[in-house]
Amino acid sequence: MSKPKVLIAFYSRNSSTEILANAIAQGAIEEGAEVRLRRTREFVGDEIMSQVPGWRENAQAMNQKYEAPSEADAEWADAIVFGTPTRFGSISSELKAYIDGLGGLWFQGKLNGKVGSVFGSTSSLHGGNESTLLSIYTPMAHLGLIIVPLGYADPAMFKAGTPYGATHVSARDSLRPDDDHLAVARFQGRRVTSVTRGLLHAKIPSAAA
Ligand SMILES: Cc1cc2nc3c(=O)[nH]c(=O)nc-3n(C[C@H](O)[C@H](O)[C@H](O)COP(=O)(O)O)c2cc1C
Known about the structure:
Largest sheet: 6 strands, parallel
CATH class: Alpha Beta
Low-confidence stretches: none
Number of strands: 6
Bound molecules: flavin mononucleotide
Order of helices and strands: EHEHHHEHHEHEEH
CATH superfamily: Flavodoxin domain
Radius of gyration: 16 Å
CATH topology: Rossmann fold
Distance between the termini: 12 Å
């Protein structure tokens, strides 16, 4: 049996979501996955990106590190984990543009039965982490993904994160994810990988056949 293939497709401008993405990758690799880490590209114009010091530079640095996610990455993957900073309580346009670009694979039924999971970051405690993650459950259902939440299935869940996926509160980008939040993210990587492996063994029709 080959390794479960996990695509982590995220957007991040100030690195909180990027750091969670790397911890999820670490957990997935620990559990035996082959991982592709991808950062979606800018959707707003340069006049917006230059309004906040550091945004353009951060984006350039991350774009050197990570390829943009492609349609081929989604087809390759047995599991897709989406990550986004909250934008007005919901998904970022940068990640949504990638999801919307998966319409061709959706039309061919090629995403049916793959695993899907989500994670994200807000600035404030009640700024919309849960609503953002849940808003991505909707397109995941349309795509035919088998959604894997975290529940309280690991001791890490009693200290940080949400049952819907790993999260972080950056307090206006002044805080990085701490050990408790990283433990949740690593658990997400392990859980997505083990569920994916189980589905591959179960040979569910078009589960990453
Ligand atoms: C246009 C815009 C809208 C945002 N909306 C929210 C919001 O609704 N709630 C919130 O807590 N933070 C909001 N934020 C802040 C980011 O979600 C937050 O800084 C996040 O930690 C950034 O993640 P990153 O470091 O991965 O870029 C917004 C930021 C921008 C630029």
